[in-house]
Amino acid sequence: MQRIVSKLNMEFSMVYLNAKRRNRPCIQSPNHFIIPRDQRIKLNFDGASKVNPGQAGLGGIFRDSRGNTRWVYAEWGGEMTNNEAELWAVHQGLRIAVRNGYMNLEIEGDSQITIEMLRKLRDGRSWDQVTNSSRTTGIIQDIKGLLNKIEYKIINHVLRSGNRAAIY
Questions:
Q1: Residue 55 host element (H or E)
Q2: What is the distance between the alpha carbons of residues 101 and 129, in angstroms, rounded to a whole number?
Q3: Considering only CA atoms, which of 152, 145, 83 is closest in space to residue 115?
Q4: In a domain, 5, yes or no
Q5: pLDDT tens digits along 18-67
Q6: Is residue 117 part of a domain?
Q7: What is the mean pLDDT of the chain?
Q8: Do residues 49 and 82 touch, judged by C-beta distance below 8 A?
Q9: Closest C-alpha to 106, from 153, 59, 39
């Protein structure tokens, strides 16, 4: 466990807190985590920066249809905007999903802008129809390639309170 925590650049106390919540029953409401359907994994992601642009962090959590935590990631993002931090959080989550074989994925985040970009990519739009920012072009191209490797994907916007696990 310590090895995984160090690879994620996290402190052990962060994982321990998430592990304590893992076995709690999940509440079914718009303001709380909703369990993914059978045979699916849910990724809740989040990214933020102190100022825009500024020092940023990103992370996410994967949970199965029983609400059990499968994977947690958190990273220091360096200097970027809020939208870039959200996109990097998705990017890292998709990389983890592909590496671990999570091919039936539900993706949730509290950034409407990022969710709309992901939906456009999922629906077949090219990267240049999604962004005109030179700062996000490369990450959007990578995300499109990663989304194409996942067989089934549902992309939903959730309220910040429903995305709470990704924030911690």
A1: strand 54-63
A2: 29
A3: 83
A4: no
A5: 333 444 444 444 456 677 888 899 999 999 898 889 999 999 999 999 88
A6: yes
A7: 81
A8: yes
A9: 153
pLDDT in tens, 6-21: 554 555 554 433 333 4
Rounded-to-integer distance, Cα 48 and Cα 163, Å: 13
- Domain range for 121 is 35-167
pLDDT of residue 2: 57
Would 14 be classed as within a structural domain?
A: no
Q: How many CA atoms lie within 13 A of 97 on its CB side?
A: 33
Structural domains counted in the chain = 1
The enclosing domain of 91 has a CATH number of 3.30.420.10
CA 98 to chain centre: 13
CA distance 114 to 109: 8
Pure H helices in 8-57 = 12-22
Model pTM?
0.76
Asked if the structure places residue 104 within a domain, the reply is: yes
Side chain identity, residue 138: G
- Name residues whose C-beta falls within 8 Å of residue 99's C-beta, 6 or more positions apart in sequence: none
Instruction: Give every CB contact of residue 84 below 8 A, 6+ residues apart in sequence.
Output: 47, 49, 53, 56, 77, 135, 136, 139
